[in-house]
Amino acid sequence: MRVAQLDTAAQAFGDPAADIWSGITANKVSLVPAPVAMQTSRYVMSKWRDGQFGKVSSVGVQVLHNGEELAIRLEWENPQANLQRFENNDFPDGAAILFPLTRHAPLFMGAPGEPVDIWHWRADRPDTAHGNLATGIGTSSMVNEDAAVTRSLYRQGRWAVVYRRALSVQTPAAQTVQFTLGKPVKMAFAVWDGGNAERGGLKAFSPQWLEVTPQS
Amino acid sequence: MNKVEIGREIDGVVRKPKRQLAMVFDLNKCLGCHTCSIACKQQWTREEGQENMWWTVVNTLPGRGTPRDWEDMGGGFDAQGRQLPSLIPTREDFGDDFEFNKEEVFNGGKGVQNYLQPKNSRGEKPSWSPNWDEDQGGGEYPNSHFFYFPRLCNHCTHPACLEACPRNAIYKREEDGVVLVNENHCKGYRFCMEACPYKRIYYNHVRDISQKCIFCLPRIEKGVAPACARQCPGRMRFVGYLDDKDGPIHKLVNEWQVALPLHEEYGTQPNVYYVPPMSPPSIGPDGKVEHSKPRIPLEYLESLFGPRVKEALATIEREKARKRNGEESELMDALIVYKWPDDIFPDFVADPANL
Amino acid sequence: MTGTTRRSFLKQTGGLLALSMSHLSWKLGSNSAHAAGGGQMPLIDYEGFEQVYREKWQWDSVARGTHFVNCWFQRGCNWNVYVRDGIVWREEQAGMYEQIDPKIPDYNPRGCQKGACYSERMYDASRLRYPLKRVGERGAGKWKRISWEQALREVADRTIDAMISEDGPGSITWDQGTAQTSGGAGLAMNRTSLLLDTPVLDVNTEIGDHRPGVCVTTGKMSFCSSSDDLFYSDLIFIWGGNPIYTQIPNAHFMLEARYNGARIITIAPDYSASAIHADEWIPVSVATDAALGLAMAHVMIEEGIYNRRFVQEQTDLPLLVHKDSGRFLRESDFDDDGSEDLFYFYDLSGRGVIEASGKTLDLKDLDPALEGEFEVETRRGTVTVWPVFSQLRRHLQQYQPEAASKICGTHPDTIRRVARDLATARAATCIVQSNFSKFYHGIEMERAQILCFALAGQMGRKGAGYMAFPYLNVDSVEGLSRVTGTQSPSIALAALGLKMMPSIIRNKLKGYTSEMSMFEMARESYGDGAAPASLLWLYHNSGLDEYYGRSADWDSYMKRPLSDFMDEAIDKGWQFKQKNKQRVFFENGGNVLRRFRAYDVMIEKLLPELDMMVTVDWRMSNTALYSDYIFPAAAWYEKDDITWATPLSPFSQVITRAAQPIGEAKADWEFHCLLLKEIQQRAAERGIDGFKDRAGKQRDFDVYDQFTFGGRYTEDNVEDFLDLILELASNVGDINWEKLKEKGFQRFTSLGENGYLNIGNATDVSEHETITACTWHTQDKQPWPTLTRRLQFNIDHPFYEELGEMLPVHKDNPGMGGDYPLVLTGGHTRWSIHASWRDQQHMLQLNRGEPTIFVGMQDAAVRGVVDGDTVRVFNDISSIEMQAKVSAALRPGQVTIYHAWEPFQFKDRKGYSTLTPNPINPVQLAGGYFHLQPRHAVCTPGSTDRATYVDFERA
Questions:
Q1: How far, in Å, are A45, C188, C673 from residue C710 at the CA level?
Q2: Which long-range contacts (CB under 8 A, 24 or more apart) does C686-689 make?
Q3: Mean pLDDT calculated for residue range C600-613
Q4: Closest approach of chain C CAs to the CA of B158, in angstroms?
Q5: Secondary structure percentages of chain C, helix, strand, coil, to 5
Q6: Mean pLDDT of C429-445
Q7: Label partner for A110 (CA 20 to 30 A): which of B64, C49, C60, C471?
Q8: How many CB atoms neighbour CB B9 within 10 A?
Q9: Is the peptide bond before C814 cis (omega within 30 degrees of 0)?
Q10: What is the dihedral of CA B151, B152, B155, B159, to 10 degrees?
């Protein structure tokens, strides 16, 4: 997927409802439920063995940049918005973008020595995506509270979330993804339907990388 | 120990930590006073997000418990060691935080029509609390019956919470078997709350983590008994290592077998044991005392403590009769606690004020 | 905690947390174990997390402390108070009591859930922080914050105005609550009222703690063994109390005694918390305990299983009475100049009718007859006399178990068996609290109980005894409360001693024991009105006569109205009426507008008459809420003092200033110093020479100079005063304030020399033994302080005669409240000490957050009420709303409201005591009968709110 540079202020595309997004091609990325066999919890494997989770089947992905910042807009269908996280059984909706930090880092949450960078947005804290590092399933650990600025919108049964970040940041490359014009970046996606008590490994995810190249 | 081995029987051997701390609660000495609940609250759960937490609490049984109807929620393991599905109790089930309009009544100048009223976190009149059905009990007058029943995390040998955590944030310490939720690694998924059949794990919505009894680990490490035990005025919370042959725990659990686990069938091998409650005899329809008929139905006690409860009660009665007849009884002497703290938590006698 | 305190506290701990987290890094190693599903699990630095908790368990300092509140039976717990950043963080029982004997359980770790969260309570939204002046309607909570200077000046001026008015100092009344007062420096309250000559209410009968049946029978109110003495018992009755709620730190002794072989028998209408740990629970109908007790007495007598020697020696049962009238045979029967207090028995060893010694109970070789009829020649001719025992035996025929069972609902077999158990026990005791005191006919319930214990000889032995009111205090406090002048305390005390000497000598010559002498002096001074009985004060001064005086409406045994009895008692000097226009009311740590039965009538009738009502407290009580001025008192961890105690836990305890008072709170000692200083100064500034005291004598306004003993003990050096108290004390061993403050407690070494409540315990105290009450009587054969010098069951007082209560009887409960089917009982709650914790967050969260009434299952069902419903509870007197708790434990027809909900917790501020008309029982107006004469705390009429009739319905 090639991403053209637009000559526009970041504010103009930070809003998921901004007009500018209507002109950007959406990539429909298919999602599947995270495999039960890969859950790192016997309880989860037992209770959700029928796979009644991860039903969001696809996410629309749009990407643009203005030479300084890159924005990724995700849009998916969710029957209701789950914003709260107060009650013990409140689980907010969420979405994440995963970037490999090494050439061979596996899409399944990385591996030892092969970390991945995960930008995790959640409906109960909608303004920033947490930056997590992971080296395997169950290992993700938040390293940055503000990995990306996020804005979200729930309308007519659909979530739209825009993640926005400078192409290049001070954080060492071993800890977060860096975008270089002309250089392809791999990413993968996951969404959680909080209304279905989805959290952790209970999610829908994209089993294949989407390669994105920001162009000058 | 790998988390999936803890507490499981592999090659005929149950995999356990090197040592296991345990508690024995003597229900015949429980006053239902909740000094334990308050001691714990004051020590550990006063931060924002913890307002409705009672890591240890006392219930009146028969009763719906804390959280409400927890015994009907499932969790734990089946006979094959498979984890059983369950659900997450709500704040109201646990008993919510109560907010009061004190400022309004005391300083609001709003007149004498104003009075103090509780509201739960949804702004409604509360429908439950951790001790809502205190002293209501069961049976029918004059054969009413109830007893007090303190509860906390059982620090199980086979913790369902630990197996349920997909992040490995729950661990069982090798040196003492204490089960802890690593709050720095917990992400608030709450699978542990679901899986725990005893429902002794709370959710801190401010910090987005699960929290529960930590067996007062900082105290234990300094040789000080846990707050709930050291502050218990009923002197009914024995604390010690299960394998300490000279300690009261081993004596009560293994030698005399008068201390029994709660709901052993949940399959988690709990490490809190209960000396079952005696009760005054029943009263017959003619108003006469029926001395041979205990007031608390045996079936009820068996539903909690299993079939060994009958024998445990018989042992207690027998030893009590020995004392009554002027004979010695090692069991009664152990339960009496002559010298505190030496007799009740011999390995944890340090005075915290002197640390 | 609330407000800035809580915020800064959280901020501080939050900071700690953040700091420790920032030092942690995850070891995301490659050496992971394989998890269930083949995913890879990391090695996690668990110990880094544990450090967070280690750092939470830290403090800056530890101080000794306890809770000054009136926990009474369960009071006296030594706590360590942990302080962090100048704020009390938490408290934990010190657990330092030494074991007195390896064979007896020790006292550790005394405490309860309420004490364990006072650190929370003292900073919550109820806490008073600044002086407040009412600027709105009473009770509306509209205040203006004012300075101490302004508050003191205005209050001092209005106090002076009242004192120099024609109404005089008698128009100023103090209520002394235990939340601030008593013990050590708390005597400030007594000294203030002494120096201003302003009365302090004698509250003990009004609160229903006066144990009237005990007083009638034993001549005193206070005697009690130590809690650990229970370990010697083999039969323990819990009858008239609910110690599992109200003696939390003592309860382990009962349950451990049970493991030591004792049987516990709980007698109560409901299956109470104290029934569940009993070996037998005996249900009894509400207010019928006298019938049960008298039936047990009947069984012991008829089966001949009573303790004959004890009865002969310790009781009035061998004394001869006229067979026709039941009155004692007295010396005055033989001789015109004969004494009214010389009595006789018939000696079976050959000496016939002889005088019973008033000096000793030792019978030596005498063998007083318990039965038989004897002819004696009196100045009115030959009369037939017989022992009280015979009279009693005949009288008890009406209480055969089958007959009594119809009254009390207990099976006759059970009555017989329990009577035999009591008679044959090695050592039987009775845990009984101030419950029966609060029943209209409670006097008879207590008399019947003591009769049982006396017949069984279960008194004054290790592990055996009926328990009265427990009290034990540092003995110098009483004297220091009563001295005036500006000289040093030791000179003042010597002067007081000299003043008392003639009475002491006179009493000694009469052959009085020390306790009789002390009681006699207390009786002599009682009429001066310095301490009016509060129920009588309310009756005469607060318009409550219309309520408390309705006794004859419901008491069918009365042939004339209460006002007749009242007038007669006052005319004869049996009781005292201090009617005085009321202008100023000081509430010093108590809570009259929660406590007074029908407090709403006081609000309506008395408050509008007052110039000023002032409350000193650390929390917003209902009384504070309706006051004109509020002075914020230091909390119990914010001041230095010594507390009073009881033999149940025989240790004098300290409270110490663990942290500085918050806001502008000041210790009550300081308040009294400053108030008197202001009064003295304002009087001088206003050119007022002095005031006329209540006796009409002119006094100076040098009240501060006197209060401080000429400037020796002022607001600045309370610790010196506490040291003085200990220096002058004779019953706490050799300890000074510095050492006591360090240790936190000191075991009493004796009853002391001048505490008239202390001495009632009538026993020696030794270092390595439990305390066993009343051994001076049972072992040393000292007379009991009654008219007959014995445990006295026959009271030949005219009121007793008129009301048919000469011998203990059962009387049906009067139908107070009206014709309603349910009987309302009460009792102290597990969840508060009076109202001090009633609105505490945790206590409410561990309940239902609002006032509740326990109702039985059937009673709820027939009214369509389910658990949790709001119900209207009503009778002829009032109607209130509360939440129903439907319980299997309640006796059908019984409903229970536990103690001390604040009126501001009820809709329309109508608390449960608006339901209880509290009729005065005329028998409690008796006087002029040696031991039945008012003195402080006893022998004035008590409250009678238990067993009021009500009904309820869904609101």
A1: 83, 15, 12
A2: C686/C157, C686/C160, C688/C160, C688/C164
A3: 94
A4: 15
A5: 35, 20, 45
A6: 97
A7: C49
A8: 11
A9: no
A10: 90
Q: Which pTM does this prediction carry?
A: 0.95
| Residues 6+ positions from A74 with CB-CB distance below 8 Å | A59, A60, A61, A95, A97, A159, A160, A161, A163, A189, A191
In this predicted structure, the answer to whether residue C187 has a pLDDT above a threshold of 70 is yes
Mind giving me the DSSP string for C302-327? HTT-S-HHHHHHHBSTTSEEETTT-P
H, E, C per residue of C121-159: HCCCCCECCCCEEECCCCCCCCEEECCHHHHHHHHHHHH
Alpha carbons within 13 A on the beta-carbon side of B10 = 10
Which pLDDT value is given to residue C24? Answer: 31
Ranges of chain B with pLDDT below 50? none
Q: Is the dihedral of CA C114, C115, C120, C125 positive or negative?
A: positive
C132 within 8 A of C140, measured Cβ to Cβ: no
In a domain, B295, yes or no: yes
Distance in angstroms (rounded) separating the CA atoms of residues C456 and C427: 10
Cβ contact A88–B193 (<8 Å): yes
Complete DSSP assignment for C520-566: HHHHHHHTTSSS-BHHHHHHHHSSTHHHHT-HHHH-TT-SS-HHHHH
On whether residue B4 sits in a domain, the answer given is: no
Pick C822-954's CATH classification: 2.40.40.20, 3.90.1300.10, 2.30.30.60, 2.40.170.20: 2.40.40.20
Q: What pLDDT is recorded for position C837?
A: 97
Asked if A125 reaches chain B (Cβ–Cβ under 8 Å), the answer is no
Quote the CA–CA distance of B309 and B303 in Å, as a whole number: 10
Which site among B33, B66, B148 would you substitute to test the C interface, given the most C Cβ atoms closer than 10 Å to its Cβ?
A: B33
**ipTM score:** 0.98
Q: What is the DSSP string of B150-174?
A: EE-----SS-HHHHH-TT--EEE-T
Domain ranges of chain C: 3-121, 822-954
Bigger pLDDT: C25 or C700?
A: C700
Residue B48 lies in domain: 9-93+128-354
Residue C765 has pLDDT above 90, yes or no: yes
Residue C196 has pLDDT above 60, yes or no: yes
Number of domains in chain A: 1
Interface test with A, best of C28, C31, C41 (most A CBs within 10 A): C28
Q: What is the CATH number of the domain that holds B16?
A: 3.30.70.20
Q: Which residues of A touch C35 (CB under 8 A)?
A: 40, 137-138
The reply to whether B60 falls in a domain is yes
Tell me the residues of chain B between 187 and 216 that have a Cβ less than 8 Å away from chain C: 214
Q: Which of A41, A108, A136 sits opposite C36 (nearest CB)?
A: A41
Pair type for strands A2-3 and A210-214 = parallel
Distance spanning both ends of chain B, measured CA to CA: 33
CA distance B42 to C82: 11
For position A120, which CATH number holds?
2.60.40.1190
Domain membership of residue A172 as a residue range: 2-214
Compute the count of residue pairs across chains A and C with CB atoms less than 8 Å apart: 54
Classify residue B100 as left (phi > 0), alpha (psi -120 to 50) or beta. Answer: beta
Chain-centre distance for alpha carbon C924: 18
Q: Which DSSP string corresponds to B253-289?
A: IIIS---EES-GGGSS--SEEEEPPP-PEEE-TTS-E
Q: How many domains does chain B have?
A: 1
Distance CA C652, CA C377 (A): 56
* CB-count exposure of residue B307 (10 Å: 0-12, 13-18, 19+): exposed
Q: Does the N-terminal peptide bond of residue B341 adopt cis geometry, omega within 30 degrees of 0?
A: yes
Structure tokens at C507: 């009493």
| Residue B311 main-chain phi, psi, to 5 deg | -65, -40
Question: C954: which DSSP letter?
Answer: E
> Is position B100 within any domain?
no
